[in-house]
Each structure stands twice: as C-alpha cells, then as structure tokens.
Design brief:
heterodimer, A: about 325 residues, alpha+beta, 7 helices, about 25% helix, globular, B: about 90 residues, two-stranded antiparallel ribbon, 3 helices
C-alpha cells in the first residue's frame, strides 16, 4: 500500500499516485509507515491553523462492474451515481467506483499505464469526493508564503502553472496545481504540489523537455518539481490571469459582481453534481472575504518575471 | 413579504447581494440600493414601509422609489429568484 497526504486527507492506495507521501508531522517526504487504524489530524501545521483535516480515503483495486445507466458524459468519460456512491468510467484508463465518504474501488482497463489510471484518481475522482464533502474546488494553481496562500486562475494557456513555478522560485512554495481545494475559512488545502508546464515554458524555465518526465493528460505538458508547501493556509487573494493586447502588464481590483463573473468559470461543477449547491454557497462566502484581482498581460510576450513581480508587490501592499 | 426559493443561494459580496440559482446556474447581482431594498423587504415585509424607509435614506421621490421597488420585484420574480408571499 502507498500512503499519501493531500487535499487534507490521508490517502491509502493500492495504486501509485503523483501525490506527496504521508508524514505524521512537518512536511511530507518519502518515508514508509506502518498501517494505523487511529484517526488523527494530518500534519502539525494543520492543527496549528485550526484545520481539522478529517478522514482517510482508501483506494483499492478490484472488480467494478460497468454501470449501464450512467446519465452524464464529459467527452467519452461517463459518470453518475446516487446519494452514497458515484461511478466514473474512462474507456482508456479504468472504472472508478466511489463510495462516499472514504472508499474508492478501481478496475484499471487492461493495458492502461498505472500513471494514467492514477491521473484520473488525482485529477477527477478525488476532487469529486472532496466536492461532495463541501470543499470548493477552483481550477488553477496556489502558492503560499507560510502565513497565507494565493490562487492563480485563468483560461487554459493563461500561464497559471508557469507563474506559480516562477513564484515558487521567488520564495512562494506551491501548494497545489490544477485543482485548488478551498475549505471553510477560507483556507487552501495542499494538493498536487508539482507544476505542469507546456513545452515552451519548460524550455524557458528548466531546460530541454526531451529530458523531462513527460506527463500525459491530454495536453502536452511536463512535470516540474518546485518548492512546495504542505500545510493548509488562509486564502488571502485570487489573481485571474488574462492575456490581452496591452503594452504592459496591469492590475485591476475587482468588486461585487465582477468578482463573481470573473471567478465562476474557474469554479467548475459537473452536470448532475450533488455538491454544486454547496460549492456555490462556498464561493459566495469566499468572495465576501477575499481580494480578487484581474492581472492582464500582453499576448505573445515573455512577461513572466514582470507578472511575478506585480503579484509580489500586490501581496506586500495587501499585508500593510 | 418575499422569500427565496430553496434552489436559490444568496450571499453578499462587497455590499452587493448576489442571488444564484443552483439548478440553472443563473445568477443575478444587485447594486447597493437594490440590495438595501431586498434587505428591507425581508425585514419589514410591507412595500409601503420599505418605500417610507428608503425615502428617509435616499434623496429620491417616493413615486420613483415605489416604481423601482416594484420593477426589482418583477425582475427577480420573472427569473424565479424570489417568491412574493401573499399578505
């Protein structure tokens, strides 16, 4: 069994996942622990911040019979369920049965690579489980400075992961990439703590992509290990990245409905998702307490350093 | 008197009331004056009392306030975001 710590949960899995290894205290690192039946909080940092991170999720391999009546589709992925369960069927990866709140059974498709099977667990199945328990999920990246966290949102290709990686190098370790879980407070829970970069960003920041660990997720992206933070942190601000035809990067503080309009596209909910109403409520609560900025930058120009500087400056101003 | 349907989630963001229908995904934002109108309707119930209170708070003719309040209620009602209860 593999043991991981992410999304505020201990995850015990028969399938290898690209998540931080479990550690009782301090930052998670590679280590092997014996099994334990005790319930506990995850990480001392979680206790310090008052985040009662509850529960353990068990992921097992086994037979998952196909469900003929799954009503919803997302491309070729089919899903559906009831009050206590949900099933996701990915033709090229496997069938995933979630029994809420804490058990996932996986039947990989014959010949499917482990990392592809695992990718749908971390990127789709675990978020569904989190969402059902009332955790708001934002699509983006999050970084922190030990005291508070900030989230970067934006359309595909807006530079979320790249900016997060650049900020991690500047002393703002990454908490999560792709899926950002936000719980009451609001606080950001640590999740997938490596950045996924497009080839050009990888070339610019790291080196030759041919030598990288390639991460297939339907998009040609490369996994990069950056400085990571593994403790829940209060959410202080959200930056929505946009590419526009302006001469220099600029920042606009958003208020009221502008916040909602700008952030709703980055708080995705699935059709038929029973957690959607809770997510909307959480989003409204979050927006009542959190600063939101639109960060516009010129198209087709390398302004990564300037954008990172702007975010750093805004954070300092907000702290004063 | 008004109430919100079960599917409608409300929240105040920067002083502006947001109503969001979780079934349809429709959302509607109110400016600060309209937010105050809904707040008073929820507290006082009666449209005449609300208009009287609004006329004390805003330098706007009573007739205009009455029309704006009715217009707001109609707009929200048509979108299924509020239910007007019978007196």
């Amino acid at each position: 069994m593999y043991r991981y710590e992410a999304f505020g949960m201990e995850i015990v899995s028969e399938i290898t996942l690209a998540l931080p290894d479990f550690c009782r205290s301090g930052s998670p690192k590679a280590r092997t622990l014996g099994s334990s039946d005790r319930d506990f909080f995850f990480g001392d940092a979680g206790r310090e911040s008052g985040q009662a991170v509850s529960g353990r999720v068990t992921i097992l391999q086994g037979k998952v019979p196909p469900e003929s009546g799954l009503p919803y589709t997302l491309g070729r992925v089919r899903y559906g369920g009831g009050p206590t369960w949900m099933q996701v069927e990915v033709p090229w990866a496997g069938r995933y049965r979630i029994d809420f709140p804490s058990r996932i059974l996986v039947q990989p498709e014959p010949g499917a690579e482990d990392r592809i099977v695992g990718l749908y667990i971390t990127g789709f199945v675990l978020p569904l489980l989190l969402n059902r328990s009332g955790v708001l999920l934002l699509h983006g990246s999050a970084c922190g400075d030990g005291k508070s966290a900030f989230v970067l949102c934006g359309r595909q290709g807006a530079g979320k992961s790249t900016t997060a990686a650049a900020l991690a190098e500047r002393g703002y370790p990454i908490l999560c990439d792709d899926v950002v879980p936000v719980t009451t407070g609001p606080s950001v829970l640590p999740g997938i703590t490596y950045a996924k970069l497009l080839p050009d960003a990888y070339s610019r920041m790291v080196g030759d992509p041919k030598e990288a660990e390639h991460l297939f997720d339907g998009v040609d992206k490369y996994r990069v290990t950056v400085a990571a933070s593994h403790q829940p942190l209060p959410l202080s601000a959200i930056y929505i990245l946009e590419s526009v035809g302006k001469a220099e990067p600029s920042v606009t503080a958003l208020l009221g409905m502008e916040k909602i309009r700008s952030l709703l596209p980055h708080a995705p909910t699935l059709e038929g998702d029973r957690g959607a109403a809770k997510s909307f409520q959480s989003l409204l609560e979050l927006l009542g307490k959190t600063r939101v900025y639109r960060l516009s930058r010129p198209e087709g120009r390398d302004t990564l350093e300037r954008v990172a500087e702007l975010i750093e400056t805004l954070r300092k101003e907000d702290m004063e | 008197m008004i109430t919100f349907p079960e599917s409608v989630i409300t929240g105040t963001v920067d002083g502006e009331l947001v109503l969001l229908d979780s079934e349809t995904g429709t959302y509607f934002g109110l400016n600060k004056v309209a937010t105050r109108m809904v707040e008073l309707l929820r507290n006082l119930g009666d449209e005449d009392l609300v208009v009287a209170e609004l006329s004390r708070e805003f330098d706007v003719p009573v007739q205009r306030l009455r029309e704006d309040l009715r217009g707001l209620l109609n707009a929200l009602g048509e979108r299924g975001l509020v239910i007007e209860l019978q007196k």
